[in-house]
Design a protein that fits this description.
By secondary structure, this protein is mostly helical. The protein is built from six helices and no strands. Helices cover about 65% and strands about 0% of the residues. It is elongated.
């Protein structure tokens, strides 16, 4: 029988593998991100998942529980993680060739407003954050909440930078989209 920890490890590993494989099918990049910014973001991503999934991060206050260890809490956490991962994949499919892990525009870039983008301007970030929150709940330790706060801060800054680029590229079309779709939650 698989443990909650191994189920969550496999779920996140599957998303990571999908991300790597799907990155090959994107359009040519026409703008570029500063290399130092990418290194910083990837470092934050690594720290987040080390905190979240590595057993050696269970030290001191990071290992203290913020919820009791129950089967219901673990199941709810796994369910939320799965929902977050599915939201990421759904969003990635709708972005298609315009997806990038960098803050860039692609050749002939289009403003995507289908699928989850009809409701959320940053559904990939929403999905990752929901998944991290679910994993944090399943483990019930403060390290998970720290991982969530770290990634939420990273995504907030990244999303704001992306929105400036999209607003400059798409003007009023993007402003109308901002009024229609929530930032990382519907209508927020």
């Amino acid at each position: 029988m698989m443990t909650t920890e191994s189920i969550l490890d496999w779920m996140w590993a599957a998303l990571g593998l999908y991300w790597l494989l799907s990155a090959r099918r994107t359009a040519k990049t026409v703008t570029h991100e500063a290399p130092w910014w990418r290194v910083l973001r990837l470092s934050i991503l690594a720290i987040t998942f080390i905190l979240l999934l590595s057993s050696w991060s269970r030290i001191g206050p990071l290992a203290w529980r913020f919820v009791p260890d129950t089967g219901l809490g673990r199941a709810l956490g796994v369910g939320l993680t799965g929902a977050g991962i599915l939201l990421c994949v759904w969003a990635r499919l709708h972005l298609g060739k315009y997806w990038s892990d960098k803050i860039v525009l692609k050749a002939d870039h289009q403003l995507i407003r289908t699928g989850p983008y009809a409701y959320l301007r940053h559904p990939i970030y929403s999905g990752v954050l929901l998944g991290i929150a679910g994993t944090a709940l399943a483990f019930g330790e403060w390290r998970g909440l720290l991982a969530f706060a770290l990634m939420a801060s990273n995504y907030f800054v990244k999303a704001r930078r992306e929105e400036r680029i999209l607003a400059a590229q798409f003007g009023e079309e993007f402003q109308a989209y901002r009024r229609q779709a929530g930032f990382v939650m519907p209508w927020w």
